[in-house]
Amino acid sequence: MRAVIESGHTNQAAISSDRRVITLTSKAHNRDISNLGLYSFYMHIANLPIDTDPSQYLASVAFYDKVIADASCIQTISPLQPLPTTTTASTTTTTTSAPPSTQAPTTTSRATTTTRATTTTRATTTTRATTTTPATTTRPTPPPSGNCESLDGGAKPGYVPLNTNGWTEQGVFKFTARAEKYGLRRGQHANWVFKLDFGSPLVGLVSYVANVEGPFANGRVWLLKPKSYNADIDGQLQILMIPQMAVGSTAPSQVRVSFCHSGSLPELTSSFDGASQTTTTTTAATTTTAVAGSPNTAAPGNAARCSPGSPNAIFPRRSAPTNANNYLRSTYYPGTTAYDFNEVLHKSILFYEAQRSGALPQNNRIPWRGDSGLKDGCDQSKDLSGGYYDAGDNVKFGFPMAFTATTLAWGMIEFKDAYLASGELNRALDMLKWATDYFVKAHTAPNEFYAQVGDPAADHAKWERPEDAINTVRRSYKIDQNNAGTEVAAETAAALAAASIVFRSSNPNYADLLVTHARQLFNFANTYRKNYHLSVPGVATYYKSWNGYNDELLWGAVWLYKATNEQTFMDYVVGNYDSFGAGNLAPEFSWDNKYAGVQVLMAQLTGNNKYQDDMNQFVQNAMTGIPKTSDGLTWKIQWGPNRYAANYAFIATVAGKVDPQSRAQYVTYAKNQIYYMLGTNTRGQKYVIGMGTNSPQRPHHRASSCPAWTSTPVTKCDFSAMNLQGPNPHVLYGALVGGPDISGAYTDDRSDYISNEVATDYNAGFQSAVAGNALRRCRTALNATFGRNAMNPSV
């Protein structure tokens, strides 16, 4: 397993053959740092051996003013010894042997202080010295409470503006700044939170090394919370960020910072006078009886976002192909599988990134996608930006999106080691959080949830990119106690509860927030029972729950039990299991039918033979009772058979963990289904886009089928793109298409949406099954090399 270096503020230009020397180059926002007295950035070093001693990892840093195309030109390295325990920096320098075309370094820096393998390190080019005056004000800051403190003023302020002159990009003014806290002690300042209270409202805030929450208080208040690798560190914490403001703005001269830790949270009100303070105070009073932590219950910053002059979408300056090659090759189990499952996981996550709605992060890896749906929710004065577009269209259907999140979270819980081994865990966490952040926004009161954004009929009447809707404000669809929607509320509760388990170790505060929303949504779903298609006009044509809501109620309750270990939820499932229909043979596991998932979880959680028998009956029926193509694909129905086969494979993979006696049979079946979709079939047809020869090239997908562009403004897409005969201009890497007919025949035809559309729920079971098979292949290879049970063989 190779170490991986990630840095959101740099591009990796080259790495030497011995992997000891790496060159990092600037990104667009930091290309010119000539006006800065100090510039620093973070690196995340992952995949180091578990027993790594961080004191043995030292680095010398050289600064070049030209790009080094080949890092192997720097090979002679002066030996570095471990630092004494009382020393924080080394003056060891780097000896370079540069070719004539390579500029000599202009400065040589101190070596960085490194920490554990999962901890972020900081690369610097000078000793720490800054003449920047902290932004302070004469108005007193309200005293902090609990484990919170004010970082305003003093010799080491909590906010340091950097490039305050900033730049304008796609209609938004951006600048750079840093939040920082000194004197941290591991175990004493864990799970920190920065509260940034800006004197002028922002329209956005980006950080590569922290999770951003907001806006609150009309865009004045934003929170920075830890990533998995910097939640508990020693020494100093520095968080680089890019605040974003309306065009014509200047960087705020007043910014107040609070720092909380150990579970304490700051107030979401602004300390600045004006209209935002009045609004914040009013809504803060209702927050205690509404949804804790929801941006839409703490003075949403909608004024700037929803103003007539603000865009709903922003194109990148130019489109470009997606780079899908930056993944960790599966060299650690060669010969044990026909496919590189690391590649499959990597590309499946890229598909989800291509489906994102909202303001995309600065490290967006899909260069033909831009910000979109920025005004979602403005028709209701809510912020409903974010989330995922459902399929080849641009609608955000909450019901299948929630199922997608639950299934992905389940796969990450069961097969986390596969994500770790592939180097994709952080990307997967971001993928999941993109959905859960949206659900938190959409849950605007205990008994109120926005289940959909976009009119499906109007959307399907157009063939355009999400970014083409520059001035569109879409319709938002709400459920509440007067117009309830049990299926979507309970499924979202399941998604948030499952995701809380995923985030529990790395971001416990966020996990607590998700559980709070999950509880309220489940209570809403259970108390006000009504089929959601009766409350959301138009959804019945697309995602009506034909199966009813009893399965979602059990599904939500069992996930809440797994997340909280509270007996009340288990009692609910046990007491309603048979009367709600879970004891019957379920025909499928899908966005509409969750009974099989309930059976597997109950068998896993209780060890009761009753639930295990139900689970085994489902898997046996999938293997022998459902029709198959002549070459082995489990073929449920014509529309999207790959989706159902992938879901059967995922359930079988997890069931194999629960029932050791059936494990070999179940995982073999699951492997065969996944292999079929990857190309092991009589036609050699791959059903995952971007996986080489015989992969689909013409998926029914609006954004990827529309023409590329080299400058803005961009000509609006239309149905001529749908009728294009050639491949889609943009490769939708990792997407699973619908699949073949019962005879196994398949035609790569964009107009055939039954066989060629893609969807977020298609990939959910597929990706989770791939993770299970990847983990099993890895463990099989290790056991063969080092002896049986070299790794826990429970998969």
Explain this structure to me?
The protein contains 20 helices and 21 strands. It folds into three domains: 4-124, no CATH class; 148-305, Immunoglobulin-like, CATH 2.60.40; 341-786, Glycosyltransferase, CATH 1.50.10. α6 runs antiparallel to α8 (486-503), α13 crosses α14 (609-624) and α15 (641-658) packs across α20 (760-786). Strands 9, 10, 11, 12, 14 and 17 form a six-stranded antiparallel sheet that branches. The protein has a five-stranded antiparallel sheet with strand order 8-18-13-16-15, with no helix packed on it. It is of the alpha+beta class. Residues 80-157 are annotated as: Disordered.
In percent, how helical is the residue content?
Answer: 25-40%
**N/C terminus separation:** 20 Å
CATH class type of the largest domain: Mainly Alpha
Number of helices: 20
Shape: globular
Task: List the main descriptive attributes of the protein structure presented here.
795 residues, alpha+beta, Immunoglobulin-like, Glycosyltransferase, six-stranded antiparallel β-sheet, five-stranded antiparallel β-sheet, glycosidase, carbohydrate metabolism, Glyco_hydro_9_Asp/Glu_AS, 6-hairpin_glycosidase_sf, EC 3.2.1.4
Summarize the structure.
It catalyses: Endohydrolysis of (1->4)-beta-D-glucosidic linkages in cellulose, lichenin and cereal beta-D-glucans. InterPro entries: 6-hairpin_glycosidase_sf, 6hp_glycosidase-like_sf, Glyco_hydro_9, Glyco_hydro_9_Asp/Glu_AS. The chain is of the alpha+beta class.
